[in-house]
Design a protein that fits this description.
Elements (H helix, E strand, L loop, with lengths): L1 H5 L4 E4 L6 H31 L1 H4 L2 H28 L5 E3 H34 L4 H4 L2 H26 L9 E2 L6 H5 L7 H36 L1 H29 L9 H22 L2 H16 L2
Parallel strand pairs: 1-3
Antiparallel strand pairs: 1-2
Helix pairs in contact: 2-4, 2-11, 4-5, 4-11, 5-7, 5-9, 7-9, 9-10, 10-11
């Protein structure tokens, strides 16, 4: 037993995106500015929703503020470590650091998936049942949506991590990714992980697929409803929802590909991981701020208020 314990590893080596030093420096610059943009963009949204009374009382923006918080924290779990790794020769992470990264990655990811469903419900009610919107989407409903999204995320991550933390790891300890994630870390365990692979498919893969299908169905219903009421309004709704659908696809597509087939390991997985940890949190502020007239108006009101107070 003592000999077995002495061979247990206490850290993992992350291979990163590339072994080329020049390309790693390039990635360091790109991801550094990407992370800075993620933080700045999502903090602006949170501040606008919190400080502007009009946005704060609007259900869609209340949910958007929570989405920005999830995006910001989800990126913080993975991106800073990834950025530091680009300028370090040896990219390592402790065993428990790896466990913590996987826990929060799936906790926040599961919460965000659920919150996106609730945001689609909000848009459905606003467009398809406008007369009952304020009654249905009241403050109590919004709080319930946010709390339920966090509960789903916690149950989602615990249902997997409860089985992962006790796995024996005795080598190898190389993770072919930019951060720790369940499918790759499970493969390094010194035991038969077939059942755990099935658990990842049933949990992470199925959750991603179901949420993605529900979102596409909700967007389709919204477009059909708008088309029936006014053919002229369809182009405007399609213009707005097309950007949302693109972001949702970039978030859920890699998740479905990675978690629905953990038995297979592809080198492209590490690049797909970047999409839901970097690209989507970067695009959300652009989609919901720069393309949103109410958010622009709130920023102008905030600027005018700041200028007049001088």
């Amino acid at each position: 037993m003592e000999e077995a314990n002495s061979t247990m590893i206490n850290e993992f080596i992350l291979l990163g995106l590339t072994s080329s030093w020049e390309i790693q420096i390039f990635f360091f610059v790109i991801f550094f500015f990407a992370y800075a943009s993620i933080m700045a963009g999502n903090i602006i949204i949170i501040l606008m929703v919190t400080l502007d009374s009009h946005l704060h009382s609007t259900p869609m923006y209340f949910l958007l503020g929570n989405l920005s918080f999830l995006d910001m924290t989800l990126s913080t779990v993975t991106v800073p470590k990834m950025i530091i790794g680009f300028v370090r020769e040896k990219k390592t992470i402790s065993l428990w650091g790896c466990m913590a990264q996987m826990f929060f990655l799936h906790f926040l990811g599961g919460s965000e998936m659920t919150l996106l469903i609730f945001m689609a419900i909000d848009r459905y009610v606003a467009i398809c049942k406008p007369l009952h919107y304020t009654t249905i989407m009241n403050h109590r409903t919004l709080i319930a949506f946010v709390l339920l999204s966090w509960i789903v995320g916690f149950v989602h991550t615990m249902s997997q991590m409860a089985f992962i933390v006790d796995l024996p790891f005795c080598g190898p300890n190389v993770v072919d990714n930019v951060f720790c994630d369940l499918p790759l870390v499970i493969k390094l365990a010194c035991t038969n992980t077939y059942v755990l692979d099935l658990l990842v498919i049933a949990d992470s893969g199925l959750l991603s697929l179901i949420c993605f299908i529900l979102l596409l169905v909700s967007y389709t219903v919204i477009l059909v409803t708008v088309h029936r009421r006014s053919s002229g309004g369809l182009s405007k709704a399609l213009s707005t929802l097309s950007a949302h659908i693109a972001v949702v696809t970039l978030f859920f597509g890699p998740c479905i590909f990675i978690y629905a087939s953990p038995f297979s390991s592809f080198s492209v997985d590490k690049f797909l991981s970047v999409f839901y940890s970097v690209i989507t949190p970067l695009l959300n502020p652009i989609i919901y701020t720069l393309r949103n007239q109410e958010m622009k108006a709130a920023m102008i009101r905030m600027r005018n208020r700041h200028v007049s107070s001088r």
